[in-house]
Specification:
The chain is of the alpha/beta class and 294 residues long. It has a domain at 6-17 and 29-130 and 199-289: P-loop containing nucleotide triphosphate hydrolases (Rossmann fold, 3-Layer(aba) Sandwich). Helix content is 32%, strand content 26%. It is built from eleven helices and ten strands. Helix 4 runs parallel beside helix 7 (183-195), helix 5 (150-163) packs across helix 7 (183-195) and helix 7 runs parallel beside helix 8. The structure holds adenosine-5'-triphosphate and magnesium ion (MG).
Length: 294
């Protein structure tokens, strides 16, 4: 039964994101699609060897929106996120079945270059992982490999650091080691490094989990700003964060496989963030977002 107090108990959904959809002729599909589809995920299953980690996932990601993946630890959020840019290819024994359609093309089709997939669909990790190089070189590294000239690289470094809201703090110290930056600055540097490759989508796996509330707030503001140019998919354990920044939310949970005594991740519910946090359709979602999980 629905708890009438739950909308008060759950996180407040920011009006900044909700209602940001275009006022005229939105193309609303059955899954609440508002605009052009970037990802259309159909019956995605991910295995690690014989272990079925995530099963039967279906949802869509809309251009210039922030889609949040939430759910308890071990439900497969990172696994599913990595399947969106073929990062699981790098894990021995990992296998993806089903379709991850990106602008209409299955990224798992034979002939698709996973390196190009990862350039267009960039990733920012939980723990900031700058190279042990200068701030400049961290951002210029990818463009250099892709053949950008020194002048072009100068422009890309400045532009990317500005977009990542870090330029003002580092512009006089670009030769300084990236490892000398604070955790929040390092994470923004990693975002700059990702956007320097001019991706279309940025995937973020708990990008704020190692940051204090002030650095977290900066990254959240940044995400909302970046969504004007990029499409963002974020994994977060912070429900307030999902409610504040995302347009759509996918709630995952696990189902126990009695025979093998293992747990497989399933997508319980996918909808507009406002709906997930106020009037979810599934009791499991309601329990989770109101903190009554487990
Ligand atoms: N490289 C791997 N090899 C084998 N099993 C893995 C691997 N990575 C994850 N798993 C398993 O897959 C399942 C889903 O893991 P995943 O890391 O995707 O969960 P998660 O939802 O991101 O959890 P958390 O919130 O703790 O980060 C878990 O049972 C985990 O043990
Ligand atoms: Mg994870």
């Amino acid at each position: 039964m629905s708890d009438p107090t739950m909308s008060g108990a759950g996180p407040t959904v920011s009006p900044r994101r909700i209602g940001a959809a275009p006022q005229t002729a939105p193309q609303r599909g059955p899954a609440g699609i508002d605009g052009p589809t970037v990802f259309d995920i159909k019956d995605a299953n991910v295995f690690y060897g014989a272990f079925h980690a995530v099963k039967g996932v279906n949802f869509t990601v809309v251009k210039n929106e922030i889609t949040a993946l939430i759910g308890p630890s071990g439900c497969g959020k990172s696994t599913l996120l990595r399947s969106l840019n073929r990062m699981n290819d790098l894990i021995p024994g990992a296998r993806v079945e089903g379709t991850v359609s990106y602008h209409g093309k299955n990224i798992y089709d034979p002939g698709v270059d996973p390196v190009e997939v990862r350039r267009r669909i960039g990733m920012v990790f939980q723990k900031a992982n700058p190279f042990p190089k200068s701030i400049y070189d961290n951002v210029a590294y990818g463009p250099k490999i892709h053949g950008a000239s020194r002048t072009e690289r100068d422009g890309i470094v400045e532009d990317s650091l500005k977009k990542a809201a870090l330029w003002d703090e580092v512009k006089d110290n670009l030769k300084k080691s990236a490892l000398a930056l604070s955790g929040g600055q390092q994470q923004r540097l990693c975002i700059a490094r990702t956007i320097a490759l001019q991706p279309d989508v940025v995937l973020m796996d708990e990008p704020c989990s190692a940051l204090d509330p002030i650095a977290t707030a900066r990254i959240e503001e940044l995400m909302v700003d970046l969504a004007k140019q990029f499409t963002i998919v974020i994994v977060t354990h912070n429900m307030q964060q999902a409610a504040r920044v995302s347009d759509k939310t996918a709630f995952f949970s696990t189902e126990v496989n009695e025979r093998s005594d293992t747990r497989t991740g399933v997508l319980v519910e996918f909808d507009d963030t406002q709906r997930i946090f106020t009037t979810p359709a599934d009791q499991r979602t309601e329990n989770y977002v109101t903190g009554r999980f487990g």
